[in-house]
Write a structure and sequence with these properties.
This protein has 185 residues and is of the alpha+beta class. Helices cover 24% and strands 28% of the residues. The longest helix is centred in the C-terminal third of the chain and has 15 residues, at 165-179. The protein starts with 23 loop residues before the first helix and ends in a 6-residue tail after the last helix.
């Protein structure tokens, strides 16, 4: 499986860091015009996948872990940062992140006003097989996630609504993971 090529011209200066944020009013307006670039993480352990129930829009339901890229940030650098920020896993080598695909998700609502304008993101998605120790150490942020659980790959459909477009996106990600043969017995 290939990866996302990243090219950065010499001399480019990134004016912001991952901790910098646009003022809320400007960011809300930008969401009306721009597509966000995100990196999502499919944490797996043997035949299980980690699903997290988010507590904020645009996805206040079951999903995988991830978030926005920062301008100039390499996709795998975002993956490592999100694993640390979202799941407290700060020692994952970039070579362990296996590219699954890019998924386009258009949400009907968003966290920022006006919520009914929704948002659109392109999600570069990576899978990472965790060790038993890493699985036990994983802890998701309570300000982003109500709960999480490890689900057998063939039981994911029980938690989601196959008639919901975004839930179907989650099923597509799971199918891609299964099709590349990463499920461990």
């Amino acid at each position: 499986m290939h990866d996302v090529p990243h090219f950065q011209e010499a001399g480019r200066i990134n004016p912001v860091s991952p901790d910098d944020r646009l003022p809320e009013a400007i960011y809300s307006k930008a969401l009306d015009f721009l597509v966000l670039a995100c990196v999502d993480l499919v944490f797996t352990h043997r035949n299980q996948i980690l699903l997290a129930k988010r507590n904020t829009e645009p996805r206040s339901s079951w999903w995988i872990v991830g978030g926005r890229m920062v301008a100039g940030e390499e996709p795998k650098a975002t993956a490592r940062r999100k694993a640390q920020q979202e799941a407290q896993l700060d020692d994952l080598d970039a070579s362990r992140f296996q590219y699954l695909g890019v998924y386009s998700t258009c949400f009907a609502v968003r966290h920022q006003a006006p919520q009914q304008h929704g948002s659109h993101s392109l999600n570069i998605t990576y899978q990472i097989e965790l060790t038993s120790e890493e699985k036990e150490r994983l802890k998701l942020r309570s300000d982003e996630y109500d709960t999480w659980q490890w689900v057998e790959s063939n039981n994911v459909a029980v938690l989601i609504n196959a008639h919901n477009d975004i839930d179907r996106a989650l099923l597509s990600i799971l199918n891609d993971w299964q099709s590349i043969g990463n499920i461990k017995e």
